[in-house]
Design brief:
86 residues, mainly alpha, 3 helices, 80% helix, rod-shaped
């Protein structure tokens, strides 16, 4: 199972709420919390931040190109309309 600092932090915080006199149980609970959190997060179909950022850049470039093509299409349509009216 891949280490996740967020999951480790949450599991540790949850385990900290268990009384310190329950040492072994506390460690077992922390490991169980970690496993449950990993499982729950895996089901959410999340993507890493760096992958999200790459896709955002691709989308931004695509959006800019679409805007450029829309403007060019409008220009060509106007030119065609002018030629047809002459």
């Amino acid at each position: 199972m891949e280490r996740n600092p967020f999951v480790d932090d949450v599991a540790s915080r949850l385990a900290d709420k268990v009384p310190s006199g329950l040492g072994v149980l506390r460690r077992d609970l922390e490991n169980n919390f970690r496993a449950i959190l990993h499982s729950a997060l895996a089901q959410l179909d999340l993507v890493p931040r760096d992958e999200f950022d790459v896709q955002k850049k691709v989308l931004d470039k695509t959006r800019a190109k679409l805007t450029e093509l829309e403007l060019r299409t409008a220009e060509l349509e106007a030119q065609l309309k002018n030629k047809l009216n002459d």
